[in-house]
Design brief:
five-stranded antiparallel sheet; four-stranded antiparallel sheet; 306 residues; 0% helix; mainly beta
Length: 306
């Protein structure tokens, strides 16, 4: 299998957005920057919002919408950069709008239902132009906050918490029919799917505990990070510790693509692009790399990405 190192020397890359011109826009969380990687690997800085820019997506107005987690502490272990607790200079969680032509950064949301956003992490737009996003929340040396799944609109007029009290939610994505929103829990290594009753609202679910229905889990000790959905409805989850991509069918059947050869335990994100959407772009954050590889199944083309 031909794997290409598209770019190296990135400072904890995440949130890849594959553009029609072959470039990839991503965030460098540890640098507080948003960067465009050209097909030849050259890097261009688009904006420097500071904090911890994380998941990103193109909105219906052509701007880039960014989940900013406010910043992590970092340390290195055997050459691998690892994010830890809330940064000492933590600047607060927020959703930002970035004008790709000027680099101007605007803060769109800092609270949901009156509660401060702690660590917004990943984002996906629906066909109506609203977006789902996860708040991974933060940890300190003494405690871990609960995270949540939210929905919001780009005009700044509406944001709502759809599921609260989730343990470290991370990746988020929509099924092809947009009747299910998937979210991955980092620390448990589990994937959930929540039924959508209408745009921006989840269906009521029976049971004692609020949240999505369990889809599946990694059979080994592993953490889950961001995700992407294939055109056939399968969900590809970037997998940490057991480095690679864990792919689930909606009914929970698993297959695994190992990336252990890169000696980076922090496989953090996957996005699709290229001819027929059959190229996977994957971030190896611990060693600062963006790679690409052929993918057997076509990825689902994201709303507004073209």
């Amino acid at each position: 299998m031909a794997i290409t190192e598209v770019a190296t020397g990135l400072k904890f890359p995440e949130g890849p957005v594959v553009m029609d011109d072959g470039s990839v826009i991503l965030v460098e969380i540890a640098a507080g920057a948003i960067t465009r990687v050209l097909p030849n690997g050259r890097k261009q800085t688009i904006a420097k919002p500071g904090g911890g820019p994380n998941g990103a997506a193109i909105g219906p107005d052509g701007a880039l919408y960014v989940c900013n987690n406010g910043g992590f502490e970092y340390h290195k272990v055997r050459g691998v950069m690892i994010p830890g607790h809330q940064a000492k200079d933590y600047s607060g969680g927020r959703i930002e709008r970035v004008d790709l032509s000027t680099g101007k950064v605007e803060v769109l949301y800092t609270h949901s239902d009156g509660v401060a956003l702690r660590g917004p992490n990943d984002i996906v737009f629906d066909r109506q132009g609203g977006f789902w996003f996860t708040d991974h929340a933060k940890s300190t040396h003494d405690y871990r906050q609960w995270g949540a799944l939210h929905y919001a609109t780009i005009d700044g007029s509406h944001i709502s918490t759809q599921i609260g009290s989730i343990m470290a939610p991370n990746g988020v994505g929509l099924s092809p029919d947009e009747k299910t929103v998937y979210y991955a829990e980092t620390l448990s290594g589990r994937l959930f799917g929540a039924a959508i009753s209408k745009p921006g609202n989840l269906a009521k679910r029976a049971g004692l505990v609020a949240g999505g229905a369990f889809v599946g889990a990694q059979p080994t000790h592993a953490y889950f990070d961001s995700l992407a959905v294939q055109a056939n409805g399968d969900v590809c989850v970037a997998t940490i510790l057991n480095p690679g991509i864990t792919t689930f069918t909606p009914k929970g059947k698993i297959r695994f693509t190992s990336l252990a050869q890169f000696a980076d335990p922090l496989v953090t994100n996957i996005a699709f692009g290229g001819k027929n959407m059959k190229t996977a772009y994957i971030t190896l954050s611990g060693r600062g790399k963006l790679i690409s590889m052929p993918w057997a199944q076509a990825g689902l083309k994201l709303n507004f990405s073209g």
